[in-house]
Amino acid sequence: MSTAKSMEERAEKFVQRYQAVREQIARVIVGHDEIVHGVLTCLFVGGHCLLEGVPGLGKTLLVRTLAQTLDLDFSRIQFTPDLMPADILGTNMVMESSSGRREFQFQKGPIFTQICLADEINRATPKTQSAMLETMQERSVSIANQVFKLKEPFFVMATQNPIEQEGTYPLPEAQLDRFFFKLMVGYSSRQELNTIIDRTTRSVQIVPDKAMDGSEILQWQNVIREVIMATHVQDYIVRLVLATHPNGQFAFPITNQYLRWGASPRAAQTIALAAKVRALLNGRYNVSFEDIRRVYLPALRHRVILNFEAEAEGIGTDQVLLDLLEKVSEKADQPAAAS
User: Where, residue-wise, is CATH 1.10.8.80 in the chain?
Assistant: First the structure.
């Protein structure tokens, strides 16, 4: 009984602290509630977030506001076609010591931070984009046979313009898979636009207060992992992921027709952790099927690859995934839908 009560108290405390951070962000960011929730989910599970949308929708402002709300080190990297890996990671430079001797010293790049805003990440060449792979997965930087660990917690919050825009390079599949969520930032409504104008065209500048530090974030990351997930709920996640594998045991006709590659095991891990956050925010210490459905799309949309037929017919990734979500049953023994 005491254990259950402790879990309940921690869930209640998490909701309070989560709302404290969200309220500070809402002082600056107008609308985009699901986007803000997705970014905070990545924050509280230790994952990275990719925000996609046309320029001017507030993607960069959201990340900067998050950094202001948290007591963490922050750096911003503007990705451009001429950006080089050393501009991100750092490089060895010849330095003269006090004794007059010259020696190589490693000068750390802007990636040595806790929140890194990778702005317009798909404007850099694939060579430069790949410099982020180790930092995102291992939280470390390898330079000249030396490994430098990054300070925890460490988050990459990247923004990108739609791939169809001129001057952009598609992110490598291996890098996309390292992003916890891919969130699509849409346009603001009429009322939200009016509020944005009121807030940004007057002399008053709103600055959010610090609401949380790194040690507390790490604490909540541990609590989230303790949330219970029943075996049949976990199997639902597994079958959702396996349904994206063409010609696999759990594939549907739409899978074989429109998908070239399915989601990786990271997708299942992502859905499980994100669903645990949803459960806590709803005052529960166990994951439900609805929690899984709420996080399914941002966890998978960047982890499946469409084939030529889908692109030729104008079929989008979200369309295929939502169709699969409807077809996969909560009951493991229920037969697959015929179409």
Answer: 228-339
From first to last of its 339 residues, the chain has per-residue pLDDT tens of 346 657 778 888 899 999 999 988 888 888 788 888 999 999 999 999 998 887 777 777 888 888 889 888 889 999 988 899 889 998 877 777 777 777 777 788 899 999 999 988 888 888 888 888 888 888 988 887 788 899 989 999 998 887 666 667 788 888 888 999 999 888 878 887 888 787 777 777 778 888 898 899 999 999 999 999 999 999 999 999 999 999 988 999 999 999 999 999 999 999 999 999 999 998 888 999 999 999 999 999 999 999 999 989 989 999 999 999 999 988 876 544 443
DSSP H/E element including 159: strand 155-160
pTM for this one? 0.87
- Encoding tokens for residue 120? 């317009």
Fold of 1-203+213-226: Rossmann fold (3.40.50)
3-class SS at 318?
helix
Q: How far apart are CA 218 and CA 215, in angstroms?
A: 5
Class of domain 228-339 (CATH, top level): mainly alpha
User: And the tokens for 107?
Assistant: 């000068």
Which is nearest to 310 in space by CA: 298, 299, 323?
A: 323
- Strand, helix or coil at 149? strand
CA dihedral of residues 259, 261, 266, 270 (deg, nearest 10): -10
